[in-house]
Automatic annotation (TrEMBL):
<dbReference type="GO" id="GO:0042448">
    <property type="term" value="P:progesterone metabolic process"/>
</dbReference>
<dbReference type="GO" id="GO:0020037">
    <property type="term" value="F:heme binding"/>
</dbReference>
<dbReference type="InterPro" id="IPR036396">
    <property type="entry name" value="Cyt_P450_sf"/>
</dbReference>
<dbReference type="Pfam" id="PF00067">
    <property type="entry name" value="p450"/>
</dbReference>
<dbReference type="GO" id="GO:0004508">
    <property type="term" value="F:steroid 17-alpha-monooxygenase activity"/>
</dbReference>
<keyword id="KW-0732">Signal</keyword>
<keyword id="KW-0408">Iron</keyword>
<keyword id="KW-0560">Oxidoreductase</keyword>
<dbReference type="GO" id="GO:0004509">
    <property type="term" value="F:steroid 21-monooxygenase activity"/>
</dbReference>
<keyword id="KW-0755">Steroidogenesis</keyword>
<dbReference type="GO" id="GO:0005789">
    <property type="term" value="C:endoplasmic reticulum membrane"/>
</dbReference>
<dbReference type="GO" id="GO:0006694">
    <property type="term" value="P:steroid biosynthetic process"/>
</dbReference>
<dbReference type="GO" id="GO:0008289">
    <property type="term" value="F:lipid binding"/>
</dbReference>
<keyword id="KW-0446">Lipid-binding</keyword>
<protein>
    <recommendedName>
        <fullName>Steroid 21-hydroxylase</fullName>
        <ecNumber>1.14.14.16</ecNumber>
    </recommendedName>
</protein>
<keyword id="KW-0256">Endoplasmic reticulum</keyword>
<keyword id="KW-0492">Microsome</keyword>
Length: 480
């Protein structure tokens, strides 16, 4: 591995070309271009979005997605477009315009509050309860299962998901030098084992759904995908062209593998990103207690303590929204997005880019560029408000990417972030655990940019100390 590192460094040093804010390096068999400015990111993601909408083939992601049967790692193609549209429409069924998704998230917020309340002023690590809550949202959304704390199936889901995330984060060299897979490789072995457990559980859910599927309103995402799949098959059978499918792919359509990989991807793409953003929010609030107080004041004025905040409150809570935005700016969980590839010969900033080059959009640099952000290292939620205190979103703020490959789960993620942050700050104040230093704000880059583990104490706010709640099958969960 020392030899490999030396080779890698030599490759990097020899092949690094610097074009002002654009870097190109020759890594393995491909050119990789790193885009560091908003102007160039606009070209890649929006102006020439389609030309740069490819994804590189990597060994780990091919394993993970049965050769690109998902959305995120599948190459740009007519079939991919149909698949993405189907997933987008399925999310819309539960998200925008319905209260179904909101009810799912609010139930998870309620359960999370119980977990936090149970700490009774002791220092706790917020990572496990947040991860449980966000995983539960996805389990309910995807296959209608909601688990109690400690349920073995929930533990299985969390364990394999974590295993996949950890091994993908460590799998980097195999993706650059694929021949490494012929050497003993514990990371690849663990990844394969986690994928097998994942597929067993999701296949079981898929078969159960096929048996119990009835027409009409879908119960969850699996139902919606199965119904969409049937519709596309039906169209093909009747000789009607599936929406934009090419001739060679028309035969294939959306297979069971596509449905399964989509369900798997909602866990992969939706859990770690959302729970990590929530961990960053709490970490920054511990560092900035005055920001926490201001959010709580806004919540008290708009919502009070007689009911839970819901999406209809969002327009009236601009400061809370600005805190979430500022956290996503200063610590984007996906700091280089997902790698893109050039599908054709193209250019960025006037420099020609050859077909097949990988393009990494450095969102970290864009979100910290002093040309666009005043004192970018400072945590200042007000930068997302105008002088009247209304929402203001600079165009160079792109935590979910932009263009044809923009995050499919953006509205779900935004809804979750809003409901979790508002629900938690309505009821609790968060402070550093006594005698323990404040969380480290540098973070560590794995699959996402995560804060290092930290602890905090949770104190019920005035009016919430003696509140009782009930959860089905658990009786009273909170009693003073
Ligand atoms: C705070 C939460 C989230 C953040 C910050 C986030 C961010 C991102 C980013 C930066 C990308 C890559 C865009 C690009 O490559 O240009 C992406 C892609 C994606 N995200 Fe998210 N995401 C979040 C939550 C979710 C959720 C909840 C889901 C699903 C339920 C999801 C599903 C996806 C999928 C499927 C893609 C691939 C899109 C494609 O390649 O066409 N994400 N996300």
């Amino acid at each position: 591995s020392v030899c490999l590192s030396v080779c890698l460094c030599l490759c990097l040093c020899l092949c690094l070309c610097l074009y002002g804010p654009l870097y190109a390096l020759y890594l393995g068999p491909h050119y990789t271009v790193v885009v560091n400015t908003y102007q160039h990111a606009r070209e890649v993601l929006l102006q020439r979005g389609k030309e740069f909408a490819g994804r590189p083939k990597m060994l780990t992601t091919e394993l993970l997605t049965r050769g690109g049967k998902d959305i995120a790692f599948s190459d740009y193609s007519p079939l991919w477009k149909t698949h993405r549209r189907l997933v987008h429409n399925s999310f819309t069924l539960f998200g925008e315009g319905t209260t179904k998704l909101q009810s799912i998230v609010l139930e998870a917020v309620e359960a999370l509050c119980c977990d936090l309340q149970a700490s009774r002023g002791q220092a706790i690590d917020p990572d496990p309860p947040l991860m449980r809550a966000v995983t539960n949202v996805v389990c309910t959304l995807v296959f209608s299962s909601t688990y109690q704390h400690g349920d073995p199936e929930l533990t299985t889901v969390m364990e394999y998901n974590d295993g996949i995330v950890q091994t993908i984060a460590r799998g980097g060299l195999v993706d650059i030098f694929p021949w490494l897979r012929f050497l003993p490789n514990q990371t690849l072995t663990t990844l394969t084992e986690c994928i097998a457990i994942r597929d067993q559980l999701l296949s079981k859910k898929l078969e159960e759904h096929k048996v119990s599927l009835i027409g009409g309103e879908p119960r969850d995402l699996l139902d919606a995908l199965l119904q969409g799949q049937t519709r596309i098959k039906h169209n093909q059978g009747s000789g009607v062209r599936g929406q934009g499918l090419g001739v060679e792919q028309e035969e294939e359509g959306i297979s069971d593998d596509h449905v399964l990989m989509t369900a798997a991807e909602v866990f992969g793409a939706g859990v770690e990103t959302t729970s990590t953003t929530l961990l960053w929010v709490l970490a920054f609030l511990l560092h900035h207690p005055q920001v926490q107080e201001r959010v709580q004041k806004e919540l008290d004025e708009v919502v009070g303590c007689g009911r839970s905040p819901d999406v209809s409150d969002r327009t009236h809570l601009p400061y809370l929204d600005s805190v979430i935005n500022e956290v996503m700016r200063i610590r984007p969980v996906s700091p280089i997005l997902i790698p893109h590839t050039a599908l054709t010969h193209s250019s960025i900033g006037g420099h020609s880019i050859c077909k097949g080059s990988r393009v990494l959009v450095n969102m970290w640099a864009i979100h910290h560029d002093p040309e666009h952000w005043d004192q970018p290292e400072d945590f200042r939620p007000e930068r997302f408000l105008d002088d009247k205190g209304l929402r203001f979103t600079p165009s160079c703020f792109m935590p979910f990417g932009a263009g044809p490959r923009v995050c499919v789960g953006e509205s779900l993620a935004r809804l979750e972030l809003f409901l979790f942050v508002s629900g938690l700050l309505q009821r609790f104040s968060f402070s550093p655990a006594p005698g323990v230093s404040l969380p480290d704000l540098e973070g560590r880059l794995g699959v996402v940019l995560q804060p290092l583990r930290y602890t905090l104490t949770v104190t019920p706010r005035p009016g919430w100390e003696g509140v009782k709640g009930e959860r089905e099958g658990e009786g009273v969960w909170w009693k003073e």
